[in-house]
Amino acid sequence: MDIARPPIHQIAARPKAVLPIAEMVVGLEANDVADLLPRVFNLCRAAQSLAARAAMGLPLATHAAEDLRRDILRDHVVKVCLKWPPALGLAPIALPQGWLDDLSQMREVLFGPQRAMPRTAQAFWAFISEAEGGLGPVLGAVKAAFDPHVACTQVLPLARPETVMARFPQENTVAARHARHPVMKAIAQDYGRGPLWRATAIALDMESCVNETLPAWTKRPDEVVVVPAARGLYAIEVRVEQGRIKRFRRVTPTDHLLVSGGVLDQSLASLDRPVDHPLMTLLLDILDPCIPLELREVGYA
C-alpha cells in the first residue's frame, strides 16, 4: 500500500516594488545625488553615503568610518536585542542609556560575563544553553526553533570585493565576514548554513562593532567602491562627467539575497513550510531583506 507523502511547498519570493534609482539619478549633479541616496534608502544610511561620496570622488564626512560602525551596530542591536526576542518568546534585551557610546558596557550586555563571543564550539554550545544573559538565550531560541539542516543553503561562494558586482548566487550576507570563525564552522557542520549560522554571524559582527574591528571599505581598480554594511557588502559604480551623473550602478546584499537560486530561494526550499507558517516569518526576520517581499505558494512538488 502506498503511503501518502506530505506536499513539498514551493514558495516564490518577489519584491513588492523596486525603485529605479539609476533612472532617477542619471543627469543630476553629483553632490545632490550624494545627499539624496541616504535619504531615499534610510537603512544603511552611513554605508550609502560613504559609498556614494567615495565613488563620485567627493570628500567623505569627517567621521565616515565611525558613522558606518555605529550604523551597523545600531541595525544589529535593533534586530537581535529588540525585534527577535519577542518573536522567539523572550523578553527584549534591556539596553543601558547611552549604549551606542559605551562600548565597554555593551560587551557585557551582549556577551554576558565573558564580555566576548565564544571562540570554540564547546564554549558556544554552553553560551547558548546556560542562559547567562546577553545574546546566548536568543541564539539558543533560534537553535530550538529550527531543526538541523532546515532553512539552509548549500555552500555558496563568499562575496568578495572582486565578485560583489556580479549577480550570481553568492553569500553576500554578514555570514561571509565570519564564515571562517571556528564556531561558524562547527554550526555549518552540525546544523547547516541556516538560521543559527546566520544569527551567530550577526552576533560576531556585533562583537566586531564594539571592538572596532570591522573591515574597511575599498575602491577597486575599476573605481567600484565596496563598503561593509549591516547585511553584507554594498557596492556602487558611478561615472561623473562635468559634475553630473553619467552612469550609476549599485548592488546591495538584498540583490544577492533575491537572485534566482540564491540564499532566499534555497532557504525557502529547505524550510518547506506554507507562507503563513510562523517559522517563515522568523526566517525572513533573520535573513532581513531591506525591502518588502511578497511570498506566495506556486505549487507543490
Key phrases:
301 residues; disordered N terminus; two-stranded antiparallel ribbon; alpha+beta; globular
Description:
By secondary structure, the protein is of the alpha+beta class. Helices cover 45% and strands 13% of the residues. The strands form 2 sheets. A 4-stranded antiparallel β-sheet has the order 2-3-4-5. Strands 1-6 form a two-stranded antiparallel ribbon.
What structural category arises from helix and sheet content? alpha+beta
- Cα(first) to Cα(last) distance is 21 Å
Q: How would you sum up the global shape?
A: globular
Approximately what portion of the residues adopt beta-strand conformation? Answer: 5-15%
Return Rg in Å.
20 Å
Widest sheet: strand ordering: 2-3-4-5
Unreliable runs, pLDDT <50, ≥5 residues?
1-5
Taken in chain order, the helices and strands follow as EHHHHHHHHHHEEEEHHHE
Counted beta strands: 6
How many helices? The count is: 13
Q: How would you sum up the major sheet?
A: 4 strands, antiparallel
Number of domains: 1
